[in-house]
Amino acid sequence: MIAPRIPLHSMANPMPTPMTHPTTSPLRGCLGICLGVCLGAWLAAGGERADVYRPGPDPRARLAGTEPVPTPPSFAPAGADPGIVPTQADLNITITDGIVTVAPGGSTVYTITASNVGPDAVIGATVSDTFPAALTCTWTCLGAGGGACTAAGSGNISDAVTLSVGGSVSYSATCAVSPLATGTLSNTAVVVPPGPVVDPSPGNNAATDSDTLAPVGANVTGSKTVSGDFTQGGTIIYTIVLTNTGGVQGDNPGHELLDVLPGEVTLVSATATSGTAVATLGTNTVAWDGSIPAGDGVTITITATINAAAGALVSSQAVFSWDSDGNGTNDANSVTDAFVCDQ
Question: Are 208 and 216 in contact (CB under 8 A)?
Answer without folding.
Answer: no
